[in-house]
Design a protein that fits this description.
Glycine cleavage system transcriptional activator, D-Maltodextrin-Binding Protein, domain 2, 11 helices, 2 domains, single chain, alpha/beta, Arc Repressor Mutant, subunit A, LysR_HTH_N, transcription regulation, two-stranded antiparallel sheet
Length: 297
């Protein structure tokens, strides 16, 4: 005896029935299915004829489900969901992982490297959340973050050093060719100091020219390091930034390091992620890749 499904309506008709039952409107159902209203209505009439039962009541404004249609709709929706799940398991879609970083870290360090990551890991859909706001892992759907500071970063979080912080002074080679490299404190006063939100200038000047106050005559202030770096590339003055953020610009001769001295700080860039009993294999891949990239910085 055959174990087939002789009374099973066409799968296409059942899919249309589920869409119409959800919208209770032929026009909206037709839009979702990419068909004409007439084609959808014809399929539903054909389904009702083959089942020999009315599934919908034709109302003055739209449609209503009959009792039989309502019960059938719930069962068909469950059955289609099971088919969808079974198909998805056969053909797993690319898995995604969200990384939270600051806009400067994104634009000056991470984005130039992402092409290489995509080539090596085509199965991972890496999503970037670039914000100055401190992201929350659960509510923002963040899997791993790069945070600047000192651990611990909070309860239930793992932290691993990604990069030490080494702050350097950079300027446009055109600006230095025009004004000369400032070898003395007085010469430095002739340049505009480009500030970001970290306020490194007082510390840097104290290390460079001990006993002198911070230059105060000419300043430009930005809320993001990347903006201060762009201003330096544009010849607006001297910026202080992490060497990792300006390395590519120095290599491309868009910037030059003004002084050989750098500023070493206790704070650094850390990888931070929630402490869970079982870590996703994707997280391990992304962590390892970020650490490899940092080792080359």
């Amino acid at each position: 005896m055959s174990a087939g499904f002789p009374g099973l309506p066409s799968l296409n008709a059942l899919r249309m029935f589920e869409v119409v039952a959800r919208h209770l409107n032929f026009r909206l159902a037709a839009e979702e299915l990419g068909l004409t209203q007439a084609a959808v209505a014809q399929q539903i009439r054909g389904l009702e004829a083959s089942l020999e039962i009315r599934l919908f009541e034709r109302l003055p404004r739209g449609l209503g489900l009959t009792d039989a249609g309502r019960a059938y709709s719930a069962s068909i929706r469950s059955a289609l969901a099971m088919i969808d799940e079974a198909t998805r398991l056969l053909r797993p879609e690319s898995s995604h992982l969200t990384v939270s970083v600051t806009p400067t870290f994104a634009s000056k360090w991470l984005i130039p490297r992402l092409g290489g990551f995509a080539e090596r890991n085509p199965q991972i859909d890496l999503r970037l959340l670039a914000t100055d706001r401190l992201s929350h892992f659960h509510t923002d759907g963040v899997d791993i973050a790069v945070r600047y500071g000192q651990p611990p970063f909070g309860g239930g979080l793992n932290a691993e050093l990604l990069m030490e912080q080494r702050v350097v002074a950079v300027a446009s080679p055109t600006l230095l060719a025009e004004k000369g490299t400032p070898e003395t404190f007085d010469a430095l006063q002739g340049f505009v100091a480009l500030h970001d939100a970290h306020h490194y200038w007082p510390l840097f000047v104290a290390a460079l020219f001990p006993g002198h106050p911070s230059p105060s005559a000419r300043n430009l202030r930005f809320n993001q390091t990347s903006l201060a770096i762009e201003a330096a590339i544009g010849g607006q003055g001297i910026a202080l930034a992490s060497h990792a953020f300006v390395k590519d610009d120095i290599a491309a001769s868009r910037l030059v390091q003004v002084f050989s001295q750098d500023l070493r700080l206790d704070k650094a860039f850390y990888l931070v992620w929630p402490r869970k009993a079982q870590q996703s294999p994707l997280l391990q891949v992304v962590k390892q890749w970020l650490k490899e990239q940092a080792a080359d910085s």
